[in-house]
Amino acid sequence: MSLGLRSWWLRCLDESLTAEQRRLPPDELGRLRVVVGSVGLLLLLDLAYLAMLPFHPPSQRVVQALVLGGNLLVSLGVLVLVRRMRSPLLPSLLLCGSLAVSLLLASLLVELPGGVVHGVYMLVPLLAVYLLGARRGFVFTALLAFNAAFLHEFVHSGLGQTRPLFAEPRLSWSNFTAGLSLMLGWALSWLYNTAREEVHAELRRTLQTLRESEGKLSSLIESTDDVVLSLDARGRLVMANPGAQQLFARMTDGVVLVPGNPLLSRCPPELREWVAARGRMALGGQRVRAEVDVLVEGRPRTVDVLFNPVREGERVVGLTLFGRDLTERKRAELQLGEVHRSLMDASRQAGMAEIATGVLHNVGNTLNSVNVSASVVMERLRDSRVSGLGRAVALLRENEARLGTFLSEDTRGRQLPAYLEALSLQLAQEREMMQEEMRRLVQSVDHIRSVVSMQQRHARFSGAMEQVSIPALLDDALRLLAVSFDRLGIELRREYAAEVPTVLVDRHKLLQILVNLLSNARHALLEEGVEDRRLTLRVESWGERLRISVSDNGVGIAPEVVPRLFSQGFTTKKDGHGFGLHASALAAREMGGQLSCASEGRYRGATFTLELPMGKLTPAESRV
Hints:
Elements: H1 3-15, H2 19-22, H3 26-51, H4 58-84, H5 89-109, H6 123-132, H7 134-155, H8 169-223, E1 227-232, E2 237-240, H9 242-251, H10 269-283, E3 288-296, E4 299-312, E5 315-325, H11 327-382, H12 386-398, H13 403-408, H14 411-460, E6 465-468, H15 470-481, E7 491-496, E8 503-506, H16 507-525, E9 534-542, E10 545-552, H17 580-590, E11 594-598, E12 606-613, H18 619-623
Parallel strand pairs: 7-9
Antiparallel strand pairs: 1-2, 1-5, 3-4, 4-5, 6-8, 9-10, 10-12, 11-12
Helix pairs in contact: 3-4, 4-5, 5-6, 5-7, 6-7, 6-8, 7-8, 11-14, 11-16, 11-17, 12-14, 15-16, 16-17
């Protein structure tokens, strides 16, 4: 049956039902349709039999006319019950009962050999099982089967005349087979209806699950602030959630999205070409994602839109649009970027302050040596015997006229040569001592100049990428710390690989990280309870990366603390600010590297490892 004919047939059946009946559940509505359709078909069948009565034997016409007339009245009664009753049970009982009784009477009152094997008998089990269920249908089917197999033969064989049962084997076996066929028809109808009910039950469960899922999805779509639109292949609106309605109303001064209308006609003019181009790409099977700037109530907003094709098999039948307002996130990203830049500036300032503290400490120690040397020179000059030489010269000038007599006869004159000899020796010693102090003074000044020059050199290259020798930079970091590890009782070990390649990094950032790690290691080794203090520096290649390890056997780090070490504001030192390791980790990440920590627990030391990618300068970079 074609789809059009089937729809017309169902419409005709529904016209005979009331509006309330058409709203019944599908199973009951289906039974009412079958009752009405069966009555209509039986009426046609009865009319056809009435038309054929003149061709029947005269002795059978009256009985058949009465049976057919009764069928017509019962059919009309069934139709009346259908219109008056909501449930299909009573009309179904009346229909099946009238059909069974009319067939039973026709077979008993009209002597028609082979009448009980007529195909119309099979209508009873088919209709009864479907309309009334297996148990009620069995009653009607068993009645007709008993009639076909035994009662019909018994009645038309003489109502109790003594004769062998199966006196006519052909007719009796046909009747018995007809009764058996009716029972088999009932069994097949029962199996079919049982299987059908199982399928319908599974279908109901599936539909229930689908409705629940659809309800959840609908609730999710309706409650989200994001834009959700669904379009068909022609760009007409299928569905728009409240978020989409609200956004379009704010963009277009109150325009409402109506299902069935083209979406482009509702879009602001400046967005139509943008939406149309990406819509065509989505209808072509491509998933498109893009950001667009729109004006919402006169204020610029950024919306992230996803165009997603909707497929039925291999065919694209529509598309969905998902939009999210990214304005606040963009603003937060800008603020985060500003905070990150401020944090990096602060980290550089902190690193510079750390280095400057080391530089000042180193310069201060050297200035102490300069002060000591200057004080010694001043003290030597103050206690110098140069004044005695002046008195001797004055004495010689006083006795210049009798210089020979003065030197040979005067007591003071005779002592003057020995005095001058002793004075010259003492002045020579003073000169040598002051020369040594001045040499030390010059060395201290040179040391101050070298420290300041080194700091200026590192600061000058801040932010610039260059090839850096890691062992040399580690030595610079140790010097900038201005710490004598030997004086502090710390054994310093350098375990560098035989060939350590240079790395392309920002020298200032890397120096800042190394100074911070060395400073933390020094503090960890100087804590109470640490013995055999030892600091180990390792540099080694690891594939395409370079590893720099700073290991100490100091106070160590508790396992639960290790994951938080690089968090901003977290510190394990009493006077710490929780900024150094966080800034170092950020600097390492900016250079494409990674800073990590490993510790076996308290008083078991710690190892900080910095991994950096090894790179080479391009010709353009080397020229810069």
